[in-house]
Amino acid sequence: MSDRAPLVPDGLDGIRAHLEEVYRDLHRHPELGLREHRTAGKVSGALRSFGYEVTDGVGGTGVIGILENGNGPTVMARADMDALPVREQTGLPYASTATVTAPDGTEQPVMHACGHDMHVTCLLGCAHLLAENRDDWRGTFVVLFQPSEENGDGADAMIADGLTSRSPRPDVVLAQHVLPYPAGYVGTRPGPFLSAADSLRITVHGRGAHGSMPQAAVDPVVMAAMIVVRLQTVVARELAATTPAVVTVGSIHAGTGPNVIPDSAVIELNVRTYDDATRSHVLDAIARIVRAECEASRSPEEPEIERTTSFPPTVNDEAATRRVAEAFAAHFGDDAHTIDLQTASEDMSEIPGAFGVPFTYWGIGCVDPGRYAEAARKGTLDQDIPVNHSPAFAPLVQPTLDTGVSALTVAALAWLGA
Question: In this predicted model, what pLDDT tens digit does every residue of 351-363 receive, in sequence order?
Fold first, then answer.
């Protein structure tokens, strides 16, 4: 442990049990994006008890807490709060049984399948430590609890609701995410870290007819099938082998019966890239292939290509990341690593972008180290270790929680405690 952040090991002992209860409570009561009313209320109440100036309801359910402690830098740390429409299958004693009513009237299960409950708890722990140990740092610490990350609209909602006027301008923005690495692991990466993500809905038009009379039809099902196959060549044959990208078709909808050729088919797909040039190339190639296949199939109408969601790439500032990596190396020793590129995506970078300031975003492990080591030995990590968004995703409470609180605090002190 470094002696730059003595408040971390000393202070954690006094709040650990409480934080573990907070985490289990949040896990038991997940909420979907822009519905995080209970979570936001818990966060606001805790921050006020620590002595933070709190602003509620930013961008719907977002929360900002500000703690001023003399002259010095301003550091912002961000956590996301929302859960996912997933039915939990972890078997945990504090597993979620929550459901909500979906727009179509059906019952929808809800689960913290991505670890945002851990993110919230870790940031509350960091906020508590800094509030209780003001002699160890100077400056302003801003905590931001963001709604609706999974939908990709929470950061934008807070920005549109006046985030930059409701918070002092930070010198740096910090954030972290639990990932399927061994608990205790902390990984930083300068430059590109998380991918950009673009989801598309493509509607191709045909001409309906009886299934026994295909000569009278323009079959959109065949059209869609040819498009799906052809899209596999975008990454395989249009990008260099050293350029990472993913194109995944996740949904095809067409028709209502086996003997009816429908009028249209809908394809939904997702694209992951790490830089603007590759992103533009892949999206342009998709549009080109769709239009060409429609023309080859004699489609009577132009296809409709709609971008339904879009996440920017997460590209860490080199200097800020180096500063945090050095602090982590001093504090965590051999548990501090350089992490690989991740194909997940985030909207967090919109927040420092709105302020025009640098940011760094890192990963922490949350898997039982023994279980991870055994799966790695067998070469079965992908099969044996549940990943984010899996119904079996269950972060090991400790040491994940201690690691997350410590990482945020050590990173903040790299500026505030300097």
Answer: 999 999 999 999 9
